[in-house]
Design brief:
Layout (H helix, E strand, L loop, with lengths): L1 E4 L13 E2 L5 E3 L7 H9 L4 E4 L13 H16 L10 H15 L15 H15 L9 H11 L5 H8 L3 H12 L12 H8 L1 H16 L10 H21 L5 H10 L2 H9 L1 H14 L3 H9 L3 H11 L4 H8 L11 H16 L14 H5 L5 H22 L3
Amino acid sequence: MLLVALDKLKDGVVLGEDVRDNNGRLLLTKGQPIDLNQIRLLKIWGVPEVKIQGQDQDIVTESGDKDEDDRLKVERTVQTIFQHIDTAHPAISPIYSAAIEYRLQKGLFIDFGPRLPLPENFKLDLYNGMKTQIQFSEVQLPESPEIISEFNRIIEDPLSSANDIAAVVSRSPSLAALLLKIANSAAYGYPSKIDTLSRAVTLLGTREVGVLAMVISSVQFFGDIPQNLIDLASFLRHSISCGLLSRILGAQANLPHTERLFLAGLLHDIGRLVWYRYFPEQAKLVLNMAKNTGLSVYEIEKECMGISHTQIAGHLLNKWRFPDTLVNGIIHHHRPMRSPEPVEPSIVHVADIAVNALGLGHSGGHIIPHFDPRGWHQLGIAPGALKTAIDQTVQQVDIMTDLFTGI
Ligand SMILES: [Fe+2]
Ligand SMILES: [Fe+2]
């Protein structure tokens, strides 16, 4: 009998011993010849080597080519991150295929590595530390930056004009430059160049530009998160991708407020930024816990902190007096059917799952969070159209991320 690494196995060799996975589940039985497809599956299941019959070195081969190794790593990555999701669902199946395709093209596989040790009583520590602070001292949440309050005042006032918004925007050159770049981007599709703020406000709408400015100012506000917790560039890419895909799905579903969907997607995980910034120790433990358990970060937040990033976002955005219609898409993006108006949260829900699957950045964890098929059915979008929307997002994301970088 010979113990052979999977990379060295030849097609048709006969197993000398049963093969089981880490949990003792029987995968293949002794005495059975195995083919290349089964060898590939064993790799996906994390089996490093098998015992085969005979002693002849000829039954093994040289290691496979690099392309095949990359495909296996990507397949294992996607299988792992989808471990809590029904991948046969008509909406998930095209997302799964797109994830394999995109990650293979970009070499985006994840080595989930060894599990990290957790401190004793960590659950209790987190629960006491986090829940108490969020519940009883909301004052610890940041005050609304002055510029956000000003935009808010303008969009709430029915008598305000494009000039009012332009006047506030122009006080922040970086915000003004970014607004113009966004208005001129392919995503908005205006045929002629928009070269002044007032024209941008006229075309996009006073309220729309006001909310866009509020959202950008929020992103700027959280721009100094410790990099050892989260890669902010990756967070931004996740947010922008979710915004772009939400807008495209909104158009496919014939919704009137696709711009609002872009902004809801852009801000959907802002609650995470609050806890990265104000509760970094707890956040670190939650991320480690997710890594150890294979659960999504969202599940761990609820379990261990007693409050999720969507609830934190609710506290923050209400305090900052963001429009309710925008907040709805953000705070219900993991449980869209809990919203009295579930369509927009359902769009962000599906978009978030898709961009997580493709690895278009991330906001903390890699495991795909809970998918609610009822949310998908709210949309009336054909699964084939979902693939098209994902392709369009991939085409736009680099351009849009470049615009936001450095704000
Ligand atoms: Fe989220
Ligand atoms: Fe997300």
